[in-house]
Fold this protein.
Amino acid sequence: MHATVIIPTRNRLKFLQEAIHSIESQTFGSWSLIVVDDHSNDGTQEWLRTLDHSWLETVHLTSHRERSAARNEGLARARGDFVLFLDDDDRLTRTALAVLVSALRRHGNAVAAVGGRRIFDEFGHTRRTRHPRFERVFDPWEEVLLGTFLGLQGQTLFRRETLIEVGGWNEGLAPTEDLDLWLRVSRKGPVVTVGRIVLEQRAHRGQLHPQDVSKIEDEISQAFVETLQPPARNRGRHLLEARSAYQAWRNTFWEGRCRKALQPMWATITKAPEVFRSGVNRWYLWKTVAKTLIFAAFGHRGTVTIRRVMTKVRQFLKRDPRLKPEVTTGSARLPRGK
């Protein structure tokens, strides 16, 4: 079995070199790498031309086309059974491909395998994100709609035939293309989650976050639900209502308005109990319920004080990577033709 790693890149030569080194270090033996340069002007093309490896293929786009188009260019050239997309500023752990390929070998009906993720920054801080500690196989489409599951590129090894069947990446979206792809993939079969960390995600200042991401995600999800056949369509509509309650609770909680968060929290518990049955995040969600109740009892000032203390402790332990993308005035939906 063979795995192809695809890295779209644009003007991140230093990070790209680290990403490629993480692929070279893989313990899994049968892999190849495709790097798609999205019209960089920082010397990336020149550096790539100096590389001469049988396992490496480079593609140079003659105009800037955004990362989804670059990923599709790589997918069209991919060979073998499996495909993994890695962002140019992230790294794979040494056993990433071995762990993910092994999971898909054990579960022949799974369309993708998803591993854990660790965030790191330039100050030496690291933090593991929430992810199941044990292997689990499940149908992901309800979790994707609820917003309780989304395996990022780099975390996920897909079956190549599944990606081709769903048509690859939507080239009109950035950064909501992950959700769009997962909604289409999630109807093709189950996924398997593995407890091992496979992706090291870099937190840095060059990451952007369009201000209309949530709106576009809602539009994508609603459009997807309307393509379903009854009774799945009715189920999908209910899940979107459940997600709305869940997001209102989560956003209010993280804004520090914990007493106001009690109402959407209760609405989530009573109207969307399926959120708390999530095989991916249920323990995190119940922990958030406990935090909401505790912080609400302390009030706003108490909550601010507790959070400051917790932040100081995390910083002392170097468990506070600064993953705070810059919010931009741009849109998550790209102009036609890009």
User: Anything to note?
Assistant: DSSP finds eleven helices and twelve strands in the chain.
